[in-house]
Design brief:
Elements lengths: L1 H8 L6 H5 L5 E4 L3 H8 L3 E6 L3 E6 L13 H6 L1
Antiparallel strand pairs: 1-3, 2-3
């Protein structure tokens, strides 16, 4: 799918796939250029990340009291 490739590589109208599919949540791997682009985008908020990916929700739907979960190893060591 060309639109998905454009999205991940931030090419052409990369944001089209988000508009066309009315996206509510995105899980994006950090290895793709779009990860940094979405981090900078005012319409999206990072609500969780680990060493491989991040979860983004629309800023308008993100709650201020969202908390990043602590890593499993820290949780189980408590």
């Amino acid at each position: 799918m060309l639109a998905l490739k454009d999205f991940h590589l931030v090419q052409n109208d990369w944001y089209k796939i988000i508009r066309d599919y009315k996206t509510d949540v995105m899980v994006i791997e950090k290895e793709y250029p779009v990860y940094k682009k979405i981090l900078e985008h005012k319409d999206w908020k990072l609500v969780f990340e680990n060493n491989l990916s991040g979860v983004f929700v629309p800023t308008s739907k993100a709650k201020e009291n969202y908390l990043m979960p602590i890593p499993y190893d820290e949780y189980y060591n408590q």
